[in-house]
């Protein structure tokens, strides 16, 4: 069994042999629970919240103390997609016949039949196919996010086993690598009939793929269930918790400790009082059984006070938190500005527990394909013989019209878009260079063509670049029609031409080019080549120097525009040259050792002394608003990393298109080492120089600004595998986080998740992952917040996400508006909630010193019950749901408003202690002011007011009024609901209090209502209202003074923005849109393009191609491949709001002109407020009075 860990052995059609290895079944489980584990696991997760343990403890105490039994039952229902997947049907070859089996019952070693458009049930070795040469075509969107169709081929020896009987007798044995998560690699050997055959990834069909354009195929199960590469890349489902939740756990522990301390103090006081004073009353007021001494009395007093004082953290707090989060989730769902009319898809908050965490994100990890891009590519510009085409005309002049190709070419693609008529005229007049240019594009590719009807062509391209180039050639009169293993048929300017295909020099990432050698009908042999300018220009004939210089300038311009470029060249070959090279190529192709190196050398030999034709520029379109969104999020101090499975050139070009990368950067570091030592050396050599340590500690954001913005890092997947190792991860994180932009290329789904986990581990920052394909699921699950794009790659990412929408640009609004508001509202809610409950509860503590520590409550028992449920619950809920400091437009216009959430400034341990300090201060005022005044006060009739009921009603009324005024001050955005809830709750208090103290209820329940008539008699006394007013003033005036001074002396950015908005409203000036403004729609920027970059020259080469397809074509193995489209979108430039942010504080205090046509009521309110603050300011300090003396009210 030791060998099982190193290799896997699978024998076809032999379950007994395979079962002795105890391989995993094909049953999967992706949900967190099942029927058995739901209750214990869910309870374990719920009690990760310390508050739940705290409430359980208090509940037990109250059950024991009051002999109440509370019964509640909850029905938990959960659904999982696992059963649906596990119960899918698959055709399994058992004892010579096909039988339907559930996926969960498929075993390693079974032979499965797949039909067109079916999902692959397990990781299969392709045995045979209905297509020629054992080929089949698959779509891997669920694996790697790519919508291109890919080709797979069976081993030649099994490709003829298409008959059921032949497959039933197949008993080959496969020895291969153990289960792993590498999607692009498979290493194994097939042993059959005393021969062995090498197996590669080209022979494998992986679970999650879909069979396309293939009638049927058969495969041998190699990996099943959790051993499949799809499941190996699936991250574990985690219970996500916000930083505020984690902080609340700590605070609840502290509060519980504080509660115990108060209980101990009061219990000690009870013991001392009972011993020194209470013993004097024993003769007529004995202890209740079973109390028989002062120590036992103190013990009971301790637990009684724990129960009385437990309202410092009432259970209504957590109920209110969930209600607020639910409201925030509905706001996201209802946001019309996050609704995509094209897709008819609205934003969806799939969880209600992470809303405030959206306001604290520091790192965003984004997929590229389908997330940043639209999957659309277009032929945009070209350079032919030194002449550039496709340039935009003068912006002030008349805009060009889209060319109509149909009259010129009936076979043209009607969807093709091009505007420069000079290129079409050049084709029509028969320019030889232009014709040769498009002839190259129509011949040098691996595209397959399907002609469903006469003239109706459908191209299946393995790469989106090739599809765009071949389509361009088609529209300009050079139409690729069909191919055979040895020929390519085209229609050139209406004339059908068939070329003999002599060789395809295949593409790979090292060569960065591909070539074809063809013989035209006249017998002339020519090599056509296209590839990266960095490699192709070095292989030109020396006579091309002048043309190469001009073309290089054009390439620089195209690259500066963010376009994907290729250079084109050709070479004429004589028969002798062809025969000589063909022999060497044939020898290299049949070599058993170092075959790739020998082929590369042969290709290098023939691809020399070529003649330059020109260059192409393809626009890789981004989604709408991607550059703007990235720019605004960067200004909000959010770092964006792109994690993509695409190759380096493609990802880098997208980086330039979306303005993550610019030529203004000091350097773009490339990490591409293949060994641990080389990766470490590259990391150390490219580490950005850190600034000298400041003498005083500075906020992390300021420190990062010193070293960010100048560098970018691009790292390949094989290098990332080494960088993620334990001894190098710290060095990688420090280097990457010092860069403004990070792009990880050729990464596996699991590597995406590992990068996210690495940042979570080392930076302790809130992370967000966004993607649209199944290959992004593990990343989405690993991040604190997962966002799914409902695009063209299935719904796996959406199902695994916490939030979903259809466009990347909506992320800006999700974070800067909804996230920031949710964080702000939750922080204000928590601060106020702790304040009001400490103000309410601590009065009992002070009262204990005046009631013999007898655990007597201050308030009526019904007031205690209704305080958190009725009197104060709705106002704080309204504030927590509707409050906002600035409007949504200003949140987008000033991204720096987002930083307080990242730095956790609005609710932390310091803010918590300030809140409870204010609550304790309020409780002191509410207890001692009425106590001091009422102790000597009398009614008009001479009856003293110093009784328990009067004191309780006065204190309770003062408390409700004070907390109502306080929430009115805390509320920054008033709605009709806020007014109804705040003032309605105050009215409800008086209504309920008079009802509970009425004679009617007392007559019905004489033992339940002990405060009969107290409200009426107490609130009729003027001294009581004066007491309430004095207590309210003492509680509120210091708060007003502090906030006014803080606003005057040290305003926050939100205060500045509000003031700016007030000035704008008063001056009635139109507000210009800035870079951070809301998305203006396609029309406003569709003609825009990135300006030309200065600095070093950058190759715009990008070619999303894979090697191996040329060999398949020349061997006669037809290919059907679909194209994937991408494109770049131009960006707006504006930084007008930055100047506003840099204004000095003193400019904020300059009073605006009041000549605006304000409404009368607004003027009156504004004047009254200014007068009030003027007088209050003058009383506090004369210096501030002088500073403010210039303000005049008109």
TrEMBL record:
* Keyword presence, Magnesium: yes
Its EC top class is translocase
According to its UniProt record, where is this protein mainly located?
membrane
Instruction: List positions binding ATP.
Output: 367-369, 466, 507, 530, 564, 644-646, 746, 752, 775-776
- All residue ranges annotated as the P-type ATPase N-terminal domain in the record: 10-67
Q: Which GO terms describe its molecular function?
A: ATP binding; ATP hydrolysis activity; magnesium ion binding; phosphatidylcholine flippase activity
Name the membrane topology term.
Answer: Multi-pass membrane protein
Q: What is its EC number?
A: 7.6.2.1
* Occurrences of domain P-type ATPase C-terminal (ranges): 798-1051
Q: Which InterPro entries match?
A: ATPase_P-typ_cyto_dom_N, ATPase_P-typ_P_site, ATPase_P-typ_TM_dom_sf, ATPase_P-typ_transduc_dom_A_sf, HAD-like_sf, HAD_sf, P-type_ATPase_IV, P-type_ATPase_N
Q: What does the similarity note say? A: Belongs to the cation transport ATPase (P-type) (TC 3.A.3) family. Type IV subfamily.
Name of the protein this chain belongs to: Phospholipid-transporting ATPase
Organism of this sequence: Amphiprion ocellaris (Clown anemonefish)
């Amino acid at each position: 069994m030791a060998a099982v860990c190193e290799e896997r052995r699978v024998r076809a059609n032999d379950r007994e042999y395979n079962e002795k290895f105890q391989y995993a079944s094909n049953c999967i489980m992706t949900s967190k629970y099942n029927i058995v584990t739901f209750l214990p696991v869910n309870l374990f997760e719920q009690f990760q919240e310390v508050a739940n343990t705290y409430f359980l403890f208090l509940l037990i105490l109250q059950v024991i103390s009051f002999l109440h039994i509370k019964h509640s039952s909850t029905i938990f229902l959960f659904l999982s997609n696992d059963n649906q997947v596990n119960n899918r049907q698959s055709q399994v070859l058992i004892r010579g016949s096909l039988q339907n089996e559930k996926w969960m019952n498929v075993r390693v070693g079974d032979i499965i039949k797949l039909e067109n458009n079916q999902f692959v049930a397990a990781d299969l070795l392709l045995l045979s196919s209905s297509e020629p040469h054992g080929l089949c075509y698959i779509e891997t969107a669920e694996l790697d996010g790519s919508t291109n169709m890919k080709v797979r081929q069976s081993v030649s020896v099994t490709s003829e086993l298409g008959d059921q009987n032949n497959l039933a007798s197949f008993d080959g044995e496969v020895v291969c690598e153990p289960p792993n998560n590498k999607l692009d690699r498979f290493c194994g050997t097939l042993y059959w009939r005393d021969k062995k055959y090498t197996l590669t990834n080209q022979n494998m069909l992986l679970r999650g793929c879909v069979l396309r354009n293939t009638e049927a195929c058969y495969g041998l199960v190699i990996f099943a269930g959790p051993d499949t590469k799809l499941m190996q890349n699936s991250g574990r489902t985690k219970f996500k918790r916000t930083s505020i939740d984690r902080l609340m756990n700590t605070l609840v522990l502290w509060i519980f400790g504080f509660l115990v301390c108060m209980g101990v103090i009061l219990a000690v006081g009870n013991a001392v009082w009972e011993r020194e004073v209470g013993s004097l009353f024993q003769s007529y007021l004995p202890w209740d059984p079973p109390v028989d001494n002062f120590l036992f009395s103190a013990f009971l007093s301790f637990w009684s006070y724990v129960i009385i004082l437990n309202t410092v953290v009432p259970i209504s707090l957590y109920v209110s938190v969930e209600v607020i989060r639910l409201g925030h989730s509905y706001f996201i769902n209802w946001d019309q500005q996050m609704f995509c009319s094209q897709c008819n898809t609205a934003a969806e908050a799939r969880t209600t527990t992470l809303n405030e965490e959206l306001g604290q994100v520091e790192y965003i990890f984004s997929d590229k394909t389908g997330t940043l891009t639209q999957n659309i590519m277009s032929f945009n510009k070209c350079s032919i013989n030194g002449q550039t085409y496709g340039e935009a005309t003068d912006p002030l002049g008349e805009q060009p019209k889209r060319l109509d190709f149909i009259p010129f070419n009936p076979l043209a693609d009607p969807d093709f878009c091009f505007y420069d008529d000079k290129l079409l005229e050049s084709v029509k007049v028969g320019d030889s260079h232009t014709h040769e240019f498009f002839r190259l594009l129509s011949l040098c590719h691996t595209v397959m063509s399907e002609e469903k009807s006469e003239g109706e062509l459908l191209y299946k391209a393995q790469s989106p670049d090739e599809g765009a180039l071949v389509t361009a050639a088609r529209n300009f009169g050079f139409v690729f029609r069909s191919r055979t293993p040895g020929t390519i048929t085209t229609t050139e300017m209406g004339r059908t031409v068939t070329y003999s295909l002599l060789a395809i020099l295949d593409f790979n990432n090292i060569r960065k080019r591909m070539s074809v050698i063809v013989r035209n009908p006249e017998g002339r042999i020519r090599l056509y080549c296209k590839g990266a300018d960095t490699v192709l220009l070095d292989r030109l004939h020396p006579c091309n120097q002048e043309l190469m210089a001009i073309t290089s300038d054009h390439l620089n311009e195209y690259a500066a525009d963010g376009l994907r470029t290729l250079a084109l060249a050709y070479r004429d070959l004589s028969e002798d040259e062809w025969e000589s090279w063909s022999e060497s190529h044939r020898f290299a192709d049949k070599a058993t050792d170092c075959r790739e190196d020998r082929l590369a050398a042969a290709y290098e030999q023939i691809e020399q002394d070529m003649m330059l034709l020109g260059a192409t520029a393809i626009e890789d379109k981004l989604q709408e608003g991607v550059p703007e969104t990235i720019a605004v999020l960067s200004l909000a101090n959010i770092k964006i990393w792109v994690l993509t499975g695409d190759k380096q050139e493609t990802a880098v070009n997208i980086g330039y298109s979306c303005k993550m990368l610019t030529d203004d950067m000091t350097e773009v570091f490339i990490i591409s080492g293949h060994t641990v030592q080389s990766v470490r050396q590259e990391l150390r050599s490219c580490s950005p120089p850190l600034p000298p340590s400041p003498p005083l500690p500075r906020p992390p954001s300021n420190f990062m600004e010193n070293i960010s913005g100048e560098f970018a890092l691009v790292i390949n997947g094989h290098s990332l595998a080494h960088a993620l190792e334990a001894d190098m991860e710290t060095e990688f994180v420090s280097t990457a986080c010092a860069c403004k932009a990070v792009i990880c290329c050729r990464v596996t789904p699991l590597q995406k998740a590992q990068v996210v986990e690495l940042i979570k581990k080392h930076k302790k920052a809130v992370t967000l992952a966004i993607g649209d394909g199944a290959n992004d699921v593990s990343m989405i699950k690993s991040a604190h917040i997962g966002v799914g794009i409902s695009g063209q790659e299935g719904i796996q990412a959406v199902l695994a996400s916490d939030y979903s929408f259809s466009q990347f640009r909506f992320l800006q609004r999700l974070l800067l508006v909804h996230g920031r508001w949710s964080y702000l509202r939750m922080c204000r809610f928590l601060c106020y909630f702790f304040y009001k409950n400490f103000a309410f509860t601590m009065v009992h503590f002070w009262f204990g010193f005046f009631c013999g520590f007898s655990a007597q409550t201050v308030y009526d028992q019904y007031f205690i019950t209704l305080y958190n449920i009725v009197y104060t619950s709705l106002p704080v809920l309204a504030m927590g749901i509707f409050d906002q400091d600035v409007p949504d437009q200003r949140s987008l216009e000033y991204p720096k408003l987002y930083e307080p959430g990242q730095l956790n400034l609005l609710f932390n341990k310091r803010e918590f202690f300030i809140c409870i300090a204010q609550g304790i201060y309020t409780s002191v005022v509410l207890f001692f002011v009425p106590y001091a005044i009422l102790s000597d006060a009398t009614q008009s009739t001479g009856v003293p007011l110093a009784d328990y009921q009067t004191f309780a009603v006065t204190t309770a009324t003062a408390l409700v009024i004070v907390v109502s005024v306080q929430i009115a001050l805390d509320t920054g955005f008033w709605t009709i609901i806020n007014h109804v809830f705040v003032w309605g709750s105050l009215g409800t208090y008086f209504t309920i209090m008079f009802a509970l103290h009425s004679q009617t209820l007392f007559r019905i329940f004489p033992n339940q209502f002990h405060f009969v008539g107290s409200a009426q008699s107490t609130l009729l006394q003027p001294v009581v209202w004066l007491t309430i007013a004095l207590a309210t003033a003492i509680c509120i005036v210091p708060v007003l003074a502090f906030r006014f001074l803080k606003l005057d002396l040290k305003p926050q950015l939100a205060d500045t923005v509000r003031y700016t908005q007030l000035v704008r409203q008063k001056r009635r000036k139109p507000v210009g849109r800035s870079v951070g403004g809301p998305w203006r729609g396609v029309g406003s920027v569709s003609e825009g393009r990135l300006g030309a970059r200065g600095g070093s020259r950058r190759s715009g080469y990008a070619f999303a191609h894979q090697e191996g397809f040329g060999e398949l074509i020349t061997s006669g193995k037809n290919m059907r491949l679909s194209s994937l489209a991408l494109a770049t979108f131009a960006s707006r430039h504006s930084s007008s709001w930055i100047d506003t942010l840099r204004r000095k504080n003193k400019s904020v205090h300059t009073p605006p002109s009041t000549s605006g046509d304000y409404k009368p009521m607004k003027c009156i309110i504004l004047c009254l407020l200014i007068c009030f603050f003027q007088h209050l300011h003058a009383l506090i300090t004369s210096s501030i009075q002088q500073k403010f003396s210039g303000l005049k009210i008109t």
